[in-house]
From TrEMBL:
InterPro entries per UniProt: NUDIX_hydrolase-like_dom_sf (IPR015797), NUDIX_hydrolase_dom (IPR000086), Nudix_N (IPR029401)
Signal peptide residues on this chain, from the entry's feature table: none
Alphabetical UniProt keywords: Hydrolase
Domain Nudix hydrolase: 33-158
Annotated transmembrane regions: none
GO molecular function, one term: hydrolase activity
Name the UniProt record assigns to this protein: NUDIX hydrolase
Length: 187
């Protein structure tokens, strides 16, 4: 990348303030051009019968509950991304298990990948989380889950758990599905 797509001025490859990776930065307008893969990787961390959720401290959906997940960075595997996001959002170490949900979101050009994981030790909110807590199935805050991908993953998990069989679930969330989810969450 040589020029800013926002203002047309030259960009430099440098580490922006507050970041730890080099990015293309416009010297004129200050725009940072992120070039991340469009993969969201995360975990479904469990401890016994409970699931770990994080209350988001950042937009989008600040104040809503989610599984620890986020954008995969260049140079890492999906497993590394899932573990890193769990550490960043919940300050938690996990033992990763199988890929559990792979959800395509073609309308926003994302692939959402969640791995089952066993919580190892303590946890507390990272800078991207307001709270981090363990929930039994009957305690899940269904009305305040951040995204349809989170709800779908949790519903699969609680349906599969009685049989102790956790196959890979592959599905799509369309624009219409997403709009329906957010309309329901707003009511």
């Amino acid at each position: 990348m040589n020029y800013c797509s926002h203002c047309g001025q030259p960009v430099s490859f440098s580490i922006p303030e507050g970041d730890d990776r080099p990015r293309y930065v416009c010297r004129s307008c200050g725009t940072i051009h992120y070039q991340n893969p469009i993969i969201v990787a995360g975990t479904l961390p469990t401890s016994g019968s409970r699931v770990l959720l994080c209350k988001r401290a950042i937009e989008p959906r600040k104040g809503y509950w989610t599984l620890p997940a986020g954008f995969m960075e260049n140079g890492e595997t999906t497993l590394q991304a899932a573990a890193r996001e769990t550490q960043e959002e919940a300050c938690a170490e996990v033992a990763l298990e199988n890929l559990y949900t792979l959800i395509n979101l073609p309308h926003i050009n994302q692939v959402f990948m969640i791995f089952r994981a066993r919580l190892q030790g303590s946890f507390h909110p990272g800078p991207e989380s307001l709270e981090v807590a363990l929930f039994e199935e009957h305690e899940i805050p269904w009305d305040t889950l951040a995204f349809p991908t989170i709800e779908r993953t949790l519903r699969h998990y609680f349906a599969d758990r009685p049989q102790r069989d956790f196959p890979l679930h592959v599905s799509d969330i369309t624009l219409e599905d997403r709009q329906r989810y957010f309309r329901g969450a707003a009511s």
